[in-house]
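protien #1 (seq + structre)
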Amino acid sequence: MVDVVSAAWVSERLGDVRVVDVRDEWEFDGIGHLPTAASVPFDEFRSTEGDVGMLPGRDAWAELLSDAGITADDDVVAYDDTHGVFAARFLVTALLYGHDPAKLHLLDGDFSSWNREYETTTDASELPDVTYEVTTAEETPLVGFEAVEAALDDPEAVIVDTRDPEEFDEGHLPGAVNLDWRELVDDETRGLKPRDELESVLESVEITPDHRIVLYCNTARRISHTYVVLSHLGYDGVEFYEGSLTEWEARDGAIVRE
């Protein structure tokens, strides 16, 4: 599944992987970026129709990745400058559009942490002229409104709200546990906390491999990071509610307010 890789791992493979920078274009051009990186700003792979933050559509996705010099056979590493939360959304989008999850990697840390030890550049990257072919994933973590509603009564399911505690208190799904996605990252290293700390945080809210895990937030950005972390830790059966609270509330799903 999708994994998290170190800066050293990426540095050794810059010529063999496709690197994607999802920061704003002005950051990519003005501040600098990883060598060989392609710029695919976050706003470009969100839907411009309907609910903000939803998937961009198969054709739009294929065009974006083609322009970035990526093929469906490439190993891809994504990064941002926000602990990986926007980059994780890129990777989960790729997963949902059929890219092999074993070829999807999140940089552990972000641009700022990379910049402490490794080279950056403001030079334009030379990108190959390719065509990205979207495929249909053999398996998908996506679940819809009805599946999540049914999961509320499943004693084996843990419904996980990855927003911050204040948002959680303002309204959440019945029975949901709150795991702010930022609890999984270290502010100093800007990457993930050590594995034992991650497992301790997860276990504290009953997120364990023997449970069915259903993730949601507002528009699926924050759950993308949590999904990647759980995938990296080897969790199976993690479900991804793309519609999240945006759809849940629009369809009058039950809400608990603290």
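ok now protien #2
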Amino acid sequence: MSIYKSSNRVKNQTLSLSHLRKIWGSEQNVSDKLLSEVSEELNSNVNMCQLNTELRMCHFIAQVMHEVGGKFNLEENLNYSEMALISTFSNYGRTPSDAKNHAYNRATNKKADIEAIANHAYANRMGNGSVESGDGWKYRGRGMLQLTGKSNYISMKTKHNNLWSASVDFVANPDLLLQPKFAVRSALIFWLEHQLYKKADIGASRMVTDSITKVINSKTTSYSERHDNLTDLLKRKVFKDVF
């Protein structure tokens, strides 16, 4: 914990449900309970996890907005078409017949085999075993920044337990990251580990946003959308009264 230096918050206001409700506006899509748990966890860790300025928080939330979407989904969406699988995952690029078998097909009303997709897409990557190991599905993307891969779950376990003086086994119980508290913490650990707060401190330009996006998901096609999120958060001063 001591390896991370943090400055004091300029103000001692509370990041609350009302702030996040300005972003996720419909309670039909996202419950008060979920957003309250997320805001409480963020508020408790703004200093330790280097989210202690308006600009840092806006950069962080701009990325989260795209990762979880309008319904605040804490689990990876694996509903892919055949061509999307081939273009997104190298394993499917090498075996396009598998992409056809696993993808959805609207013309025939065929649903995607999401478990098979995870196991094939992530086989022999990020600490995962073979397709047959089932690691791809077990360690599919979860949390606010979509933690993926067995090696990252192992790292999450070590770093989380050091930072929060806890004993939680995310490797044995990866679905823990679907709980708001741990979903938030997984994203905070990523933010710290990659020192994204230093990039955020540079400013609010497209170049800065892109540099953060590249670390979180280099192959995404959403660079522009993530920057638009940041611009909107700053324009509306969503977190200004917190800092």
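DSSP finds 13 helices and no strands in the chain.
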